[in-house]
Amino acid sequence: EKAVNLKKDLAEMQEWMTQAEEEYLEKDFEYKSPEELENAVEEMKRAKEDVLQKEVRVKILKDNIKMLATKVPSSGQDLATEWNVVLENYQLLCNRIRGKCHTLEEVWSCWIELLQYLDLETAWLNNLEERVQMTGNLPDKLDAVNDALESLESVLRHPADNRTQIRELGQTLIDGGILDDIISEKLEAFNARYEELSHLAVSRQITLEQQLQTMRETYNMLHVLQENLTDLDRQLTSYLTDRIDAFQMPQEAQ
Fold first, then answer.
1. Which pLDDT tens digit goes with each residue over 63-97?
2. Each residue of 104-116: pLDDT tens digit?
3. SS (H, E, C) the chain
4. How far apart are CA 254 and CA 249, in angstroms?
5. I want to staple 149 with a disulfide (CB 3.0 to 4.6 A). Which of 58, 70, 156, 208 is the partner?
6. Cα atoms in the 13 Å half-sphere on the side-chain side of 22
7. In this structure, are residues 42 and 115 in contact, taking their beta carbons and an 8 Å threshold?
């Protein structure tokens, strides 16, 4: 009777493993939304816990079969053979479910990381757009143009590391068929805005540089002219002080 019950327990254990494999490992999942992906992750976590909780039952079966083999070697030997098959299947199931759970957790982490990088770069793009807009109506002053140019250039020096991460994370998920439509849409919108703002910012940078150069050249010319006028004023003043007649002055002074 003991052997019959153990045989029944082994059969039930094998049946449970077959059902678990069909439910958790053989279903074709399509993750088209973050909610579907998150639900799949939670489901695999529960599956892993469920499978690992069977370790207690596996140990009890093992002990009972050993005890029976000691008392009834013939029955125990047959059960031990069946037990080895069940144990091998159980260990394989545990490894596969652990692996799938780990994979889904990595995929979810990859998605969250992608969103974080997109948020960072979107904030940078917002800042860049604001700086570009600030250069639209500048006072015609050298300091104002120079400050605006330096401010714009400081934003443009933003490193490309985050964009590299966005591209690699997005491509990894798309290649795996994970949220491919959503990610493609997000990346397309981000890249389009990035290209548009980058070109606009660089164009505005060139314009400010040219404007600044023209203003500096103008100020330099005015400075030289001011110095010449000052020298001429000083010379004329000295002539007046010495009461020199205009016709006695050099032609350029006249």
1. 887 777 677 666 667 777 888 888 888 999 999 99
2. 999 999 999 999 9
3. CHHHHHHHHHHHHHHHHHHHHHHHCCCCCCCCCHHHHHHHHHHHHHHHHHHHHCHHHHHHHHHHHHHHHHHCHHHHHHHHHHHHHHHHHHHHHHHHHHHHHHHHHHHHHHHHHHHHHHHHHHHHHHHHHHHHHHCCCCCCCHHHHHHHHHHHHHHHCCCCHHHHHHHHHHHHHHHCCCCHHHHHHHHHHHHHHHHHHHHHHHHHHHHHHHHHHHHHHHHHHHHHHHHHHHHHHHHHHHHHHCCCCHHHCCCCCC
4. 6
5. 208
6. 6
7. no
User: What gap in Å lies between CA 177 and CA 194, rounded to an integer?
Assistant: 25
Are 197 and 156 within 8 A, CB to CB? no
Enter the tokens of residue 124: 């940078």
Instruction: Find the Cα–Cα–Cα–Cα dihedral 3, 5, 6, 8, rounded to 10°.
Output: 120
**Scanning the structure block, which residue is given the tokens 């909610």?**
35
Distances (CA, A) of 203 to 118, 132, 144, 210: 25, 10, 18, 11
Q: Give yes or no for a contact between 133 and 152, defined as CB atoms under 8 angstroms apart.
A: no
Domain covering 1-210, topology: Methane Monooxygenase Hydroxylase; Chain G, domain 1 (1.20.58)
